[in-house]
């Protein structure tokens, strides 16, 4: 069974909006065990909508449409859908009551524009929209079976039409949804994916994403090569690299939920024993949230002393709601004078070792620990670039120190030559050094 | 003249990668004055590629393809292109020399896989790739003229084929590019867009984006309504809102480069005189880069004292290369104890006014100015949420102070209830307050 996605909206074609709806829908459908055949993105004209509906139905059994409906856009898409399915718009009391009560909750009167939204195609099942006023519409249509695809030399469409099987009819499902991301997502999650699963019984599918830090994709691939080669055929592996992090996604497919789940978890366990030092979490975990939980459990506080990361570590830590219960503050010492004034580092230490050195980063960590009165400190000093590198200390050279109630330790890294990526990699590396220490690794 | 875009890649369909290529291409082509008709995203199978090539050629005069070529993906796409265009792969000496010299520069031997990339379709113009090994391919093909679009009731494809004009031939251009974003972008910018402009002479087009801060989209729209209604018909206006910033894009279209440019600039000037307090820059300007330039010119230094923004302002400021020449450091005082220890705020001030108050944020700014020994300070104290709000000071309440060599001033804001957006809006608002002061506004 093939699924296609049609996104309607001029704003997508002129690049004003990046089409995150398509990738989200593709991901959710894949995760549910369906195969997505094609995305088609078109403007909101009758001609383009009809062309896309027709061609998608020739190729696929399910066509999911987002966009082109809503208070100011309703006209073209809904009337075009009616023409395509040979039906007409009728006033839907239930849909109107929904709009009315949504407006009442917000203290507004229903406008004429919104009243129009209660007109729905007679010949469809409408899908409630908990978060907006445009309902979803579920259509089913008999369709000639797939036209054989043209190949070079037989591009004569007339010849294609004569091929056997063309006139057989089959059912195609079309579902139209609003383009507003959170409205579309809620309809997909609460109704459409469930309904498609009930109809088509895709295979059981189970995903687990393992998050690694501190090792590049190709080095990681070399270490786990044997494990990867011995994965059972029911499990596929995908490498999903981001700056500073490589995610490994295992996808198991089978006939039984419980057995495919345990098959994947077995392989995850092997992976944990193979590269324990690089794995920091799974699925949606974030390093800054993990260390937050660990600090809370210990009842300990955290501060940072940052030079080249310029406050990015503090920003990540404080992006987590509730971080004020363990994060007390930071000293961003970009200039050496600030390192002296606020962290008590001696001018001689700079002269002897340079600002990017084990000695300075260690003193930064100790200085922040006492000045901020915290249990743990992350300290970073490095050369983010593009300027400031030397033959001995090229751009990307970075020292990271962690101060704990018991000790201070530091490590040197050589990242790349992109300023943005160096800042990001240093921050993730530093957070992971603290995580390992908190975990007793 | 219509353009279509085809993106090839399974990773796009399963949502592993968001399709930023399509939106970038759509934007660049629109900016160059072309109309993009459709994006089609497909997996890398022969059947899907043929189907997409065929159908795009029926609708459009130019078809731009990205993805499906490169060292490990070459086979299917290139042989399928050869079949579609009725040609064959031949070894291209010039292409091979390019690959060889690129490898020599990096100190590698050419692999067999990369040698294969020098096989190109005989019947195409190949496009050099300065940043990779996969060349672009420019094909031209005679094609039956557009099939009239199906409408309800006449979905019989055979009937469509009989309609007049079907058998007329016209030229369709197909260009195949790699899917690696920077390789595709360089080919588009250096060759393809220029070539399409030469062939099709689109109308002159001129864009200018005005950046505003400190006012919401609907309030802004109300203020500039009259100006907007009186825009000449050759100019279109688009609102592009982001958290904390609303961009206004003016697009002028005409027959003459110089006259359309001056028409747009005239309207931009009117806009400047209408809302001078909200405009901070144009096109790709960034607030953190603008204040950096201004501080450098004055030979002045900057520091921050941040509570709820948690280092995000320092991060923005230090994301600009060369910021170390004016940014000295920050005190991130998340906890009141740190505000006392590092900024010298009296416990009584908290007791009397609370941490989110004009008095505290003003003392933060003055304290940082002397402790960090800087000329200018941005200080922020607020309630980012989700917790910490009270009836008098709900989530989103934020005080921002600016200390200059001459004065300190503070202002209160009430942002929304999203933690992420509150942090971002507070940071942009604070940077803009400093910019206005530096500009003497």
Task: Describe the model.
The structure is a homodimer of 441-residue chains. In chain A, the strands form four sheets. Chain A has a six-stranded mixed sheet with strand order 2-1-3-8-7-6, sandwiched between helices. In chain A, a hairpin with a 2-residue loop joins β10 and β11. Chain A is elongated, with a radius of gyration of 29 Å. The longest helix of chain A has 20 residues, at 181-200. Chain A starts with a strand and ends with a helix. Mean pLDDT of chain A is 90; it is low at 148-157. Chain A is α/β, with parallel strands linked by helices and 441 residues long. Chain A folds into three domains: 2-200, Molybdenum Cofactor Biosythetic Enzyme, Chain A (3-Layer(aba) Sandwich); 204-282, Alpha-Beta Plaits; 295-438, CinA-like (Maf protein, Alpha-Beta Complex), CATH 3.90.950. The first copy, chain A, has helices at residues 10-13, 20-31, 46-59, 74-85, 93-106, 112-116, 157-162, 181-200, 217-223, 225-229, 257-274, 287-298, 312-318, 336-343, 347-353, 358-372, 419-438; strands spanning 2-8, 35-42, 62-66, 89-91, 119-121, 125-127, 136-144, 169-177, 204-213, 235-242, 245-254, 279-282, 302-306, 327-333, 376-382, 397-403, 408-414. Chains A and B meet through α2, β2, α3, α4 and α7 of A and α2, β2, α3, α4 and α7 of B. β2 (35-42) of chain A pairs antiparallel with β2 (35-42) of chain B, so a sheet runs across the interface.
